[in-house]
Design goal:
By secondary structure, the protein is mainly α. Among the domains are: about 190-275; about 360-465, Serine Threonine Protein Phosphatase 5, Tetratricopeptide repeat (Alpha Horseshoe), CATH 1.25.40.10; about 465-595, no CATH class. It contains 30 helices and 6 strands. Strands 2-1-3-4-5-6 form a 6-stranded mixed beta sheet, sandwiched between helices. Strand 1 (about 465-470) and strand 2 form a beta hairpin. Helix 20 packs antiparallel against helix 21 and helix 21 packs antiparallel against helix 22. The longest helix is centred in the C-terminal third of the chain and has 17 residues, at about 490-505. It is globular, with a radius of gyration of 30 Å.
Length: about 600
C-alpha cells in the first residue's frame, strides 16, 4: 500500500484562530487527502495526522475527509467522524446523504436529514434526491410524503432530479397514481424519470401500461438505455410478448449494449417465460460472465417447460464449473424434478442441500417436495414428508400443494382432511374453497358443495377472475371468461363454436368438474366453452397465418377441460399451441401436450 507523505513545512499553530485551516490549495494536509483519494487506510493515516497537528477543529478539512471516507464506502467510520465537525454545512450533509443512500444505509440517511433540519442548514436538490431515495429503499411512504411537502415548501417541486426520485418513491410504494401525477407535472423530463415510471408499472403488475409509457417515451424523442430495456423485458415476460421481446433484443444488439449479467439474465427470463427455451439457451451460452442468478434463471426455464433432464444436466454443470448454488437455485431444480417426475433426482437434490452445501431447506423447498410426490401420485409419501420434515404446523402453501395432488388423483377422503388444514391456516383465500368445493363435487357430496358455497358468501369471498393474454403483431390482447369487449367478439365466438363442434366430432368430451359446482347445467356449459384461454386461442387462430405458433398466457392453472380441448384443436388447426399457466408451460402439438398430462 502506498504511504501518504506529509510535507513538514511549518504551519502557524501558535494561535487558536490560526489553527483553523487557512489555505486548502497550499496545505500539506489537504494535499495528503487528495493523494489518499478513497483508500480508507490512507485516509485513516491522514486523520491521525490532523488530530496530532491540532487541525481537528477545521470544518473544511474534516468535511473533505468525511466526503472521501464516504466515497470509500465506510459509512460507519463517517458516522463516527461526523460529531467532531463544528457547525456542519450543507455540503457535508449532502455528502453524507448521498453516500448513505448510495450504499443502502437508508436509516442513517434519514437521521442525517433530520439532523440537518434541526441544525437549520438549508436543503438543496441533492439533499432531497438522496433522502427520497432512502425513503424509497425503506418503503417509508409516510415519511416520503412528509419530505415531498418539504420539497414543495423549499421550492424544488419543479426540479427534474427531485421529481424523478419522487416517481421512484411512489412507484416502489405501489402508488402509481401519484407517481404518474408527479411525472405529468414535470416541465422537463429525463431518461431517469421515464425509466422510473416504466419500471414502476412493470414492478406493480401493469406490464401493458409499462409498454404504453415506453411508446410515449419514443414519441417524445427519448431513446431507451439498458435500464429501459431490462424493465421492458420483464414486462414482456409477464405478458408473454415474445415479438416485442425479440425487438428489444435486436435493439440492444444494434445499439451495442453490453450483454452483461443483468441484461443477459433478463433476456433469458424473457425467452423462457415467452416459450422459447432454445433462444434463452443461446443467450446463456453467449454470455461472457454469468452469476448464480443467471444459472438459476436458465435451470428454472427448463423446469417450467418440463425439461427436467436438461435442468438436471445444467445443474450438474453449475456444480462443477459455475458459482455455488443458493436456496433459490434449489427451488428451481426441485421444481423441475416435480414437473418432470424425477423423484429419485429430487430426493438426492433435497438431501444435498444440507449435506453438501450447508443450506437449510425452507418452505419453498418443502412445497416442491410435496408437489413432486403429489404429482407422481405418491400421496402417502407426500403426507409422511409433511409429518416428518415439518414438525410444526405447515404453512398454507404446503397444504395447498397437497390438496391439489389429492384433487388430481381423486383421493377425496384425504383431500377433505387436507382441506381442513388449509382452511385453518388461510381461511380468507377463495382459491382453497373453490378447490374444496370441486373435491366434494367429484366425490358426489353435493350437500358439502352447498356448505362451501355458503361459507364463501358469508365471508364475502369471490373466486379469482381468470384471464388470458395473447400477442399479435407486438400488441397484447386480454380476454376473460365470456368476455365480449373485443370489437370482433361475434366473429371470435362463432369460430370458437365451430372449433368446439369439430372437437366433439373428434372425441372431445367436456370436463364439467373444471368449474364451481353451484352453476346450472346451461351456465356450466357456457362457462366451459368460453373460458378465457379458448377465446384467446380462437382469436389467435383467426388473426395469424397458417403455420404460426400460438402463444397464450393464463393467470391461473389451466383447467382439465381447456387442456383436453386444446389438444384436439392442435390437430384440427394443425398448429403448435403454447400455453403458459400459473405453474408451467404446455406445448400442444399433434394432439398431445409436453406435460404428458402430468401437471
Amino acid at each position: 500500500m502506498n504511504k501518504i507523505k506529509l510535507e513538514t513545512e511549518q504551519l502557524p499553530f501558535q494561535h487558536p484562530v490560526t489553527r483553523i485551516f487557512y489555505s486548502r490549495s497550499h496545505s500539506p494536509v489537504y494535499k495528503a487527502l487528495l493523494q489518499a483519494g478513497s483508500r480508507l487506510r490512507s485516509l485513516q493515516q491522514v486523520h491521525a495526522h490532523i488530530i496530532v497537528s491540532g487541525l481537528h477543529t477545521s470544518r473544511s478539512l474534516l468535511t473533505k475527509l468525511i466526503s472521501l471516507v464516504c466515497a470509500a464506502g465506510s459509512i460507519t467510520y463517517a458516522r463516527r467522524l461526523f460529531p467532531t465537525v463544528p457547525n456542519p454545512d450543507s455540503f457535508l450533509f449532502d455528502s453524507l446523504l448521498k453516500a448513505t443512500s448510495k450504499f443502502a444505509f437508508s436509516i442513517d440517511a434519514v437521521l442525517f436529514y433530520r439532523h440537518m433540519l434541526f441544525s437549520g442548514v438549508p436543503q438543496s436538490n441533492y439533499t432531497f434526491t438522496s433522502v427520497i431515495k432512502a425513503c424509497a429503499d425503506l418503503s417509508a411512504l409516510r415519511l416520503g410524503r412528509e419530505i415531498h411537502s418539504h420539497v414543495m415548501v423549499c421550492g424544488y417541486g419543479s426540479d427534474m432530479y427531485v421529481q424523478a426520485a419522487l416517481i421512484a418513491l411512489y412507484a416502489k410504494a405501489s402508488d402509481m397514481k401519484v407517481a404518474k401525477k408527479v411525472f405529468d407535472a414535470m416541465p422537463q423530463r429525463t431518461i431517469i424519470a421515464w425509466n422510473s415510471l416504466i419500471s414502476g408499472y412493470e414492478q406493480n403488475g401493469f406490464p401493458k401500461e409499462s409498454i404504453g409509457i415506453f411508446h410515449l417515451m419514443l414519441e417524445s424523442g427519448f431513446q431507451p438505455d439498458p435500464t429501459t430495456i431490462v424493465s421492458l423485458l420483464s414486462s414482456c415476460s409477464q405478458l408473454g410478448a415474445l415479438d416485442f421481446g425479440c425487438w428489444l433484443h435486436d435493439y440492444a444488439n444494434g445499439n451495442g449494449f453490453d450483454l452483461n449479467v443483468v441484461l443477459g439474465t433478463s433476456l433469458i427470463n424473457m425467452y423462457t417465460r415467452c416459450g422459447n427455451v432454445s433462444k434463452a439457451r443461446e443467450v446463456f451460452d453467449s454470455m461472457k460472465e454469468r452469476n448464480v442468478v443467471t444459472w438459476t434463471a436458465m435451470i428454472s426455464g427448463y423446469g417450467m417447460h418440463g425439461n427436467g433432464e436438461q435442468a438436471m444436466k445444467l445443474f450438474g454443470e453449475m456444480r462443477a464449473h459455475g458459482p455455488r448454488p443458493n436456496n433459490i437455485t434449489f427451488v428451481a431444480v426441485l421444481s423441475a424434478c416435480a414437473h418432470s417426475g424425477l423423484i429419485d433426482d429430487g430426493r438426492r437434490v433435497f438431501s444435498s442441500m444440507k449435506e453438501a452445501y450447508g443450506l437449510v431447506p425452507g418452505v419453498e423447498h418443502h412445497v416442491c417436495m410435496v408437489d413432486m410426490f403429489g404429482r407422481a401420485g405418491l400421496l402417502n409419501d407426500a403426507y409422511q414428508f409433511i409429518k416428518n420434515f415439518l414438525p410444526k404446523e405447515p404453512g398454507a402453501a404446503v397444504w395447498t400443494s397437497m390438496l391439489g395432488a389429492c384433487r388430481m388423483h381423486k383421493n377425496f377422503d384425504l383431500g377433505v382432511k387436507v382441506a381442513e388444514h388449509v382452511l385453518a391456516v388461510e381461511p380468507e383465500n377463495p382459491g382453497h374453497y373453490v378447490m374444496l368445493s370441486n373435491i366434494y363435487a367429484l366425490a358426489g357430496r353435493m350437500d358439502r358443495v352447498e356448505m362451501v358455497r355458503n361459507m364463501m358468501i358469508r365471508r364475502r369471498l369471490k373466486k379469482q377472475v381468470g384471464y388470458s393474454s395473447i400477442e399479435i403483431n407486438r400488441k397484447t390482447y386480454l380476454f376473460s371468461m365470456g368476455d365480449k369487449s373485443h370489437p370482433q367478439t361475434s366473429t371470435i365466438y362463432r369460430y370458437l363454436d365451430e372449433l368446439m363442434g369439430r372437437c366433439s366430432e373428434s372425441g372431445y368430451v367436456p370436463a364439467p368438474e373444471s368449474l364451481m359446482h353451484d352453476l346450472e347445467d346451461e351456465e356450466r356449459d357456457y362457462a366451459l366453452r368460453y373460458h378465457s384461454e379458448k377465446v384467446a386461442l380462437a382469436f389467435g387462430l383467426l388473426e395469424t397465418n397458417q403455420g404460426e405458433t400460438i402463444r397464450i398466457v393464463k393467470n391461473l392453472r389451466i383447467c382439465e377441460d381447456c387442456h383436453s380441448a386444446i389438444k384436439h384443436i392442435s390437430i384440427i388447426a394443425d398448429r403448435e399451441i403454447i400455453v403458459r399457466d400459473k405453474f408451467r408451460f404446455h406445448h400442444f402439438k399433434d394432439g398431445s401436450c409436453s406435460c404428458l398430462d402430468y401437471w
